[in-house]
Every structure is written in structure tokens, then in C-alpha cells.
Design goal:
The complex is a heterodimer of chains A (about 180) and B (about 170). With about 180 residues, chain A is an alpha+beta fold. Chain A has five helices and ten strands. Chain A has a single domain, classed as Glutaredoxin. The radius of gyration of chain A is 16 Å and the shape is globular. By secondary structure, chain B is mainly α. Chain B has two domains: about 40 residues, no CATH class; about 120 residues, no CATH class. The chains are: A alpha+beta (about 180), B mainly alpha (about 170).
């Protein structure tokens, strides 16, 4: 390999998958938040539920650490949106407690709930599978989607074992693109 | 000779065949019952383990006419692959829920042994070249790997999804 060769694609722009699925849901403060309200910011949209005792807290903690690493951009230019897949139990109060318990604080965070029909629709359009189990838990897939400032879906991360450094690079690369 | 897998396993158990080509969870089932032994495991033995074990085949006209649907279908397959890699227990339950009558521990064992989640690392062109050469040597196909690669492959969707779907 030539000495000056570099990793192909390393400095390339992230792909554009298409328009990110729109939503308008209820926040932990009882207000409403739509994806369109985040236009101008880079958003990471993920799905969790508050009574989860294994993977959701890990994902939330991972994203919370990333939010901290974003510094002053977090909140001002970058938003993390966590949508519950258990709308029957995850009221705004429950989501607020969950956020506090897992270090997801600050203006950059939005925890959203809605009617079961609203949640089912959003989850399906983002490609997230969720189903209540006999035990009352929610069996769901983990998918975190990065949406750019123009509302385009750019990249999706499956599971919770993704490299946080890679996501940080992707978030910063979307910030550098600018656009509104 | 080809037989349904249940029959093939029975023939092996009875010593009426010397070997058979099995797919998960049949090898796991035979191992649990202490029948036979593994000659080649393409998931772990080189060179087979260095290549994709499955390929997606689509109608050329359909792909040309419906590229978005084609990519969505491939995305769904790859996401399913990721779920098997990230949460094999859930995948095993889903497999059972779909009516496959195989004990869940065997399904789970199979899911853990199959190298799911490595689709980003394998090279599809190398895979096709490898298998085409083997089939050519065996006289099972006439076309060269170059011809198959040139006329029968399209990696655009996979390459795009490698960038879009991380994990």
C-alpha cells in the first residue's frame, strides 16, 4: 500500500438515507415536541423504556456520556431524543424520573411518550421492532438514528455495543456540514 | 442425493449414509444426540469461514425497476442479521414463535455459533470468486468467476448499507 494511502471514506460525508420519519410526541415536561422543532440541530433519535433493567440504561448512559463529550454544542446544536416503547407505563413523570436516574440531564435531552398508536407508528417508521412480553417487559430492537440539521436521516446504529467514538465523529461531522 | 433434513439425520443415525450437508440447527441437534462427527464446519474452518455463507439473489429486472424496494429488503435482512448477533436469545424466541418446532436451546446454540454480525467484514466479490472457483473445479458450473462477477453481481446496495447501518 502506498505510504500516503488513507482509509477510504474516513473523511467522506455520511450518506443520506432519506427524510427522517417525522413525529410529534409528548415530552417529559408534558409539552409537545416534533422532529421539525429540531430543524437546525443534529439529532440522535433512539428508543428505550423506563422499567428496562438491562440494556436501555446502558444505552442511555452511553448517550449521556456522549452528550457530556459534546460540550457546549450539546443542547445548543445537538439533541438526543429518547422515545419510549412502553407508552402505557411511561408517563411524562416516569420518563422524567428515568432521565434523572440515568444522568440524562440538560437541555439537549428529550424523552418522549405518546399514545400506543403514535408510538407504534413512529417505531415502525424508524424500523424498530417492539412487542410486550408475557412478563410485561418490552422486547425491542435497539436502533439509534442520526438526523442532520435539515431533517435527513444519515446513519443508523444497531444495538448498544457501537463505538461511541465513531458516533461522536459522526455527530461532529454532521455539525461541520452546517445547513439549515 | 437430497433428503429433507429430518430424513437425512435419520439416515445418518442409522448408518445408511456416510455424511450429509447440514444447516443449523441440524448439526447442533446431531451433536446433542452424539450422532456422527463434524467433518467441516464452514462457520469456523478456513477457508470457508473467511467468506459469506449466504448471498441475496434478486431478479435483475426487479432490481432495475425497484431499487428502493431492493435496498429496503436488503436492509431488513441485514438488520435481522444484527439482531441475531446482538441478542440471540430474542432471535431464538422469535424463531420458535414462528412455529419452528426445534428446542429453544438448540436454536440458541446455533445462533451463537453462526457468525452473524460480520457482514461488514466479509468481501462479497472474494466470496463469489472463491465459491465460483470451487464449483468450476468440480465441473458444476461453466462460467468463470470473472464472468459471474461482471454480469451477475451488484454490490451498490450492500456498500451503501455498510455506511448507513453501523453497529
Amino acid at each position: 500500500m502506498p505510504a500516503l494511502a488513507h482509509q477510504p471514506g474516513r473523511d467522506a460525508r455520511l450518506p443520506t438515507i432519506g427524510a427522517a420519519p417525522a413525529f410529534a410526541l409528548t415530552t417529559a415536561d408534558g409539552g409537545r415536541l416534533a422532529l421539525a422543532d429540531l430543524r437546525g440541530k443534529v439529532a440522535a433519535v433512539t428508543f428505550i423504556y423506563a422499567t428496562c433493567t438491562d440494556t436501555c440504561p446502558l444505552l442511555t448512559a452511553k448517550l449521556a456520556a456522549l452528550g457530556t463529550r459534546m460540550g457546549k454544542d450539546f443542547g445548543a446544536k445537538v439533541a438526543f431524543v429518547a422515545i419510549t416503547v412502553d407508552p402505557e407505563r411511561d408517563t411524562p413523570d416516569v420518563l422524567r424520573s428515568y432521565a434523572q436516574a440515568h444522568g440524562a440531564r440538560g437541555a439537549g435531552w428529550a424523552f418522549l411518550t405518546g399514545t400506543p398508536a403514535e408510538i407504534k407508528d413512529v417505531a415502525q417508521r424508524y424500523g424498530v421492532f417492539a412487542r410486550k412480553t408475557d412478563r410485561g417487559d418490552v422486547d425491542h430492537t435497539f436502533l439509534t438514528s442520526l438526523v442532520d440539521r435539515t431533517g435527513a436521516l444519515r446513519v443508523q446504529y444497531m444495538g448498544v455495543r457501537f463505538d461511541p467514538d465513531e458516533m461522536l465523529r459522526d455527530l461532529r461531522s454532521l455539525l461541520r456540514e452546517g445547513g439549515r | 442425493m437430497t433428503h429433507p433434513s429430518a430424513e437425512a439425520k435419520q439416515l445418518l443415525a442409522e448408518g445408511k449414509v456416510d455424511a450429509f450437508l447440514g444447516f443449523p440447527p441440524d448439526p447442533q441437534d446431531l451433536r446433542a444426540r452424539k450422532i456422527g462427527h463434524v467433518v467441516v464446519n464452514s462457520a469456523t474452518d478456513r477457508p470457508w469461514s473467511q467468506y459469506f455463507c449466504c448471498m441475496v439473489v434478486a431478479n435483475r429486472e426487479f432490481v432495475a425497476r425497484h431499487p428502493v424496494a431492493t435496498k429496503r429488503a436488503l436492509r431488513a435482512i441485514l438488520k435481522g442479521d444484527e439482531v441475531c448477533a446482538l441478542d440471540p436469545a430474542r432471535a431464538a424466541r422469535a424463531y420458535r414463535h414462528r412455529g419452528f418446532d426445534v428446542p429453544e436451546p438448540l436454536v440458541l446454540q446455533a445462533l451463537k455459533e453462526v457468525p452473524f454480525g460480520r457482514w461488514r467484514a466479509y468481501d462479497p466479490a472474494d466470496t463469489l470468486r472463491f465459491y465460483a472457483l470451487r464449483l468450476h473445479e468440480a465441473g458444476m458450473i461453466k462460467a468463470s468467476p470473472q464472468k459471474i462477477l461482471a454480469q451477475g453481481t451488484d454490490w451498490r446496495f450492500l456498500n451503501e448499507l455498510k455506511k448507513e447501518l453501523k453497529g
